[in-house]
């Protein structure tokens, strides 16, 4: 990686020593910042300590040295740190520029192309499916971003011609020049409103930042059936080429599904394919598949490779992941469903009577949005959380069985299994974050799978 003369006399401070923070620190070292300082208020994992030591990067953990931090010329903060954080407030007051990791990586990505995917739901699945299409096409590609791999570290150490990046609203909050060649906006439903002053319009604006720097030769792939997106597009100053996808109408340029047949027509090489050939099942995955197909088409991937990827793509861990069938009862791990819209999509795809596991840290959920599907498909609800009062308020008397409370996974799975009969499904799709009882949604999903194996 070439050194950048513009930063040879600058100090960058990085708040947070997780995947994005350590990746940014490595990139800063590679491009030649005069000084780099990484600060984390908690414990830094051994994996990241070793990386920082290997690259001779100064860091601290278990607290912040304000004098060192406020001496920065530039600040990169990890996406999980909110604006209300006392240090961020001081940094802003000192007029220190704050950027995100994707903004930092974008500066040094060279001629590489970026496909950026955002939305309230389906980001990980769509990002992974696009990556699979690129892989099958033999492209020099990396899977990066919110999916768990630092784009900055990739750019620094093993640069690629293409980056397929899952991007959260938090990562978009601090961009300045970041511009994906292809931007995908899958859907927008209320989520993370605690980070946006509890104003949905602020969250919508954050999502649309993925397209704000695009130019006339870029592509904007979006869900034509999402009323929030289509309403905002009426006034959004879009400069890139719009490519919508829809199940409600035929699209002249983009993608649509009609009579169970998907058509991708964003280029001259049309792709036509039955939805029954899709490896990923469910209406939500039909949307994800259309979006991925458009992105791959405009990047020049041949239709044979697109079709192959759609037919063979395996479902992701913790996202409608089949676990096992025990005495005729199917167990499905959808632990990644941390908001209501994800649960709605999960229930839409269920074909058998369902015991639904809900609960965790509520993010302001209005459970009435699930009521029709719960009445139609759910025979019992097992709560898994420390405070299940809102779930009881919404669904007591709405399902055939009494709602059961649990506070550990073994008990939860055993009680769900006791309520099930052969031909039923037990679905872990919590609608809440996991941090009351678990380290992460991955930990919650893994414990679910381990508990099922004990039955």
TrEMBL record:
Q: GO terms for molecular function, please?
A: ATP binding; UDP-N-acetylmuramoylalanine-D-glutamate ligase activity
The record's InterPro entries line, in alphabetical order, gives:
Mur-like_cat_sf (IPR036565), Mur_ligase_C (IPR004101), Mur_ligase_C_dom_sf (IPR036615), Mur_ligase_cen (IPR013221), MurD (IPR005762)
Mur ligase central domain segment(s): 117-294
Annotated ranges, domain Mur ligase C-terminal:
318-432
Q: Which reaction does it catalyse?
A: UDP-N-acetyl-alpha-D-muramoyl-L-alanine + D-glutamate + ATP = UDP-N-acetyl-alpha-D-muramoyl-L-alanyl-D-glutamate + ADP + phosphate + H(+)
GO cellular component terms, alphabetically, are:
cytoplasm
Principal subcellular localisation of the protein:
cytoplasm
Localization recorded for this chain is: Cytoplasm
This protein's pathway reads: Cell wall biogenesis; peptidoglycan biosynthesis
Q: What is its EC number?
A: 6.3.2.9
Listed A to Z, the keywords are: ATP-binding, Cell cycle, Cell division, Cell shape, Cell wall biogenesis/degradation, Cytoplasm, Ligase, Nucleotide-binding, Peptidoglycan synthesis
Gene Ontology terms: biological process: cell division; cell wall organization; peptidoglycan biosynthetic process; regulation of cell shape
Binding site residues for ATP: 119-125
SUPFAM superfamilies registered for this protein in UniProt: MurCD N-terminal domain (SSF51984), MurD-like peptide ligases, catalytic domain (SSF53623), MurD-like peptide ligases, peptide-binding domain (SSF53244)
The cross-references to Pfam families, in alphabetical order and at most eight, read:
Mur_ligase_C (PF02875), Mur_ligase_M (PF08245), MurD_N (PF21377)
This chain's function reads: Cell wall formation. Catalyzes the addition of glutamate to the nucleotide precursor UDP-N-acetylmuramoyl-L-alanine (UMA).
State the family named in the UniProt similarity comment for this chain: Belongs to the MurCDEF family.
HAMAP family in alphabetical order: MurD
This chain's protein is named UDP-N-acetylmuramoylalanine--D-glutamate ligase
The organism encoding this protein is: Rhizosphaericola mali
Gene behind this chain?
murD
């Amino acid at each position: 990686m070439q050194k950048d003369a513009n930063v040879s006399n600058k100090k960058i401070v990085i708040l947070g020593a997780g995947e994005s923070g350590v990746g940014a620190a490595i990139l800063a070292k590679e491009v030649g910042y005069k000084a780099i300082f990484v600060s984390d208020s908690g414990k830094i994992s051994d994996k990241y300590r070793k990386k920082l030591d290997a690259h001779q990067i100064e860091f601290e953990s278990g607290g912040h040295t304000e004098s060192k931090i406020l001496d920065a010329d530039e600040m990169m903060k990890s996406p999980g740190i909110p604006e209300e954080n006392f240090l961020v407030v001081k940094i802003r007051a000192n007029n220190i520029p704050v950027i995100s990791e994707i903004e930092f990586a974008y500066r040094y990505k060279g001629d590489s192309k970026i496909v950026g995917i955002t939305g309230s739901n389906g980001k990980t699945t769509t990002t992974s499916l696009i990556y699979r299409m690129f892989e099958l096409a033999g492209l020099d590609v990396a899977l990066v971003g919110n999916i768990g791999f630092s784009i900055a570290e990739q750019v620094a150490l093993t640069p690629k011609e293409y980056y397929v990046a899952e991007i959260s609203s938090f990562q978009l909050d601090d961009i300045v020049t970041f511009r994906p060649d292809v931007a995908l906006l899958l859907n927008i439903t209320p989520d993370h409103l605690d980070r946006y002053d509890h104003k949905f319009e602020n969250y919508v604006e954050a999502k649309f930042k993925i397209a704000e720097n695009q130019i006339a030769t870029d592509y904007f792939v979006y869900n034509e059936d999402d009323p929030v997106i289509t309403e905002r597009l009426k006034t959004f100053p879009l400069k890139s080429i719009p490519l919508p996808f829809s199940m409600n109408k035929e699209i002249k340029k983009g993608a649509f599904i009609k009579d169970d047949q998907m058509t991708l027509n964003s280029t001259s090489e049309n792709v036509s394919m039955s939805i029954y050939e899709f490896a990923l099942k469910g209406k939500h995955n039909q949307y994800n598949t259309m979006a991925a197909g458009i992105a791959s088409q405009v990047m020049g991937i041949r239709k044979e490779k697109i079709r192959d990827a759609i037919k063979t793509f395996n479902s992701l861990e913790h996202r409608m992941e089949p676990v096992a069938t025990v005495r005729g009862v199917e167990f499905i791990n959808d632990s990644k469903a941390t908001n209501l819209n994800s649960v709605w999509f999960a229930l839409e795809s269920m074909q058998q009577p369902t015991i639904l596991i809900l609960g965790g840290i509520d993010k302001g959920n209005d459970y009435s949005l699930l009521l029709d599907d719960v009445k139609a498909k759910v025979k019992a609800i097992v709560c898994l959380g420390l405070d299940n009062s809102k779930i009881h308020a919404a669904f007591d008397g709405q399902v055939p069985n009494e709602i059961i409370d649990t506070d550990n996974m073994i008990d939860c799975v055993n009680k769900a299994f006791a309520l099930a009969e052969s031909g039923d499904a037990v679905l872990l799709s919590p609608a809440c974050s996991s941090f009351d009882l678990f380290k992460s949604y991955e930990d919650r999903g893994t414990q679910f799978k381990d508990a099922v194996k004990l039955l």
